[in-house]
Design goal:
The complex is a heterodimer of chains A (112) and B (114).
Chain A lengths: L3 E4 L2 E5 L4 E7 L6 E7 L6 E7 L4 E4 L2 E6 L4 E6 L8 E7 L8 E2 L3 E6 L1
Parallel strand pairs in A: 2-11
Antiparallel strand pairs in A: 1-3, 3-8, 4-5, 4-9, 6-7, 7-8, 9-10, 9-11
Chain B lengths: L3 E4 L2 E4 L5 E7 L5 E7 L5 E8 L2 E5 L6 E7 L2 E6 L8 E8 L9 E2 L3 E5 L1
Parallel strand pairs in B: 2-11
Antiparallel strand pairs in B: 1-3, 3-8, 4-5, 4-9, 5-6, 7-8, 9-10, 9-11
Classes of the chains: A mainly beta (112), B mainly beta (114).
Chain lengths: 112, 114
């Protein structure tokens, strides 16, 4: 089945700097790659997603890139703010497209 | 106007007991899920239902029995609770069976087994 690896497990950045989180997936049939943000004690919420027919997608300070050949995708957050501090999860839709397989998560700390 | 709600929010119980968690969504979605998030924050799917029909059962022990009385509700009953069942359980819903739609998560139920 699909396997998603996520790095780094923790990331500390200074406010205003950029943060990059990387994920690799194993199943070349996966075609949907969302990113979820989970604040402490809260529910995961979708922040951005990308489909396999697109190489890059941007939404204000957040962007996601996808390299299908290498089977990896990345989340880029620019001009980080303290409220960006959270756990970020990448996911892939797997071969049959009926479930999400999540990465292990990245704890992002933005220091002010 | 809660989209996906779960009850209870906290559940503390002893080993061997049986407990249930309830989930309701008012988004009109066809598909609902149960996820388990362990102490290391790892988020793993347990079950999914589409229009009351079980679609995914991720090799979960049969002490866990989901039940969907209608497409707006998905409950989780756990028999003979074990220490390793301690986790946060999230319910989620999405518009269709395919995973390529946004999933809306409930607030979670923190289960502690002592």
């Amino acid at each position: 089945g699909e396997n998603v690896e996520q790095h780094p497990s923790t990331l500390s950045v200074q406010e205003g700097d950029s943060a990059v989180i990387k994920c690799t997936y194993s199943d070349s049939a996966s075609n949907y790659f969302p990113w979820y943000k989970q604040e402490l004690g809260k529910r995961p919420q979708l922040i951005i997603d990308i489909r396999s027919n697109v190489g890059e997608k941007k939404d204000q300070r957040i962007a996601v890139t996808l390299n299908k050949t290498a089977k990896h995708f990345s989340l880029h957050i620019t001009e980080t703010q303290p409220e960006d501090s959270a756990v970020y999860f990448c996911a892939a839709s797997g071969r049959y497209g009926n479930k999400l397989v999540f990465g292990a998560g990245t704890i992002l700390r933005v220091k002010s | 106007d809660t989209a996906v709600s779960q009850t209870p929010k906290y559940l503390v119980t002893q080993m061997g007991n049986d407990k249930s968690i309830k989930c309701e969504q008012n988004l009109g979605h066809d598909t609902m899920y149960w996820y388990k998030q362990d102490s290391k924050k790892f988020l793993k799917i347990m079950f999914s239902y589409n229009n009351k029909e079980l679609i995914i059962n991720e090799t979960v022990p049969n002490r866990f029995s989901p039940k969907s009385p209608d497409k707006a509700h998905l409950n989780l009953h756990i028999n003979s609770l074990e220490l390793g069942d301690s986790a946060v359980y999230f319910c989620a819903s999405s518009p269709a069976e395919l995973a390529s739609y946004e999933q809306y998560f409930g607030p979670g139920t923190r289960l502690t087994v002592t």
